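Title: Prediction job returns without error message
Component: structure pipeline
Severity: low
Priority: P3
Assignee: unassigned

Description:
Job completed but the reporter wants confirmation the result is attached to the right record. Sequence as submitted:
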Amino acid sequence: MLRSRAPLTAALLLTCVASVACGGGVECTAIGTPVGVGVTVRAPLAARAQAAELEVCWDGSCRRTRTELLPSTRASGQTCSGDTCAATAVPTGDKHGFAGVAGLPTRPVEVRLTLLDAGSRPLLEGTVRATPKERYPNGPRCGAGGPNTTVTVGADGNMQAES
């Protein structure tokens, strides 16, 4: 009975070794990529913006979604002690959010964006064309994680899609 299992065990081991060798030793994790549209709002407009409503359209159909806007930060004042480093998060005055959009394609879409104030009243409305791109969280050898794009609203209210 042990003899009949030995060839099977050897075949499984060989398959595992071969799959790592065929993959070039690249290890792919289960990390995903959010599919949708990121929103960045620059200061000083960001101080009044609390949320963003989006309508994303392609092929004659549209998807509506909403995201709350959160304060953005940057790292500052890095200190290191031995092999441990730390930094302080400093507010930038900007805000950001992410709106999931199921089925988002990797071809041009139209994004209608409405920034809302604390009372859910429109602050700014505009439309921009964007082309979502596939993202590769583990690198191109592990396959795409899904498409996304970002729309940035400048301090002057101009909207620009990631290029």
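Comment from assignee: result matches the submitted record. The chain has a mean pLDDT of 86.
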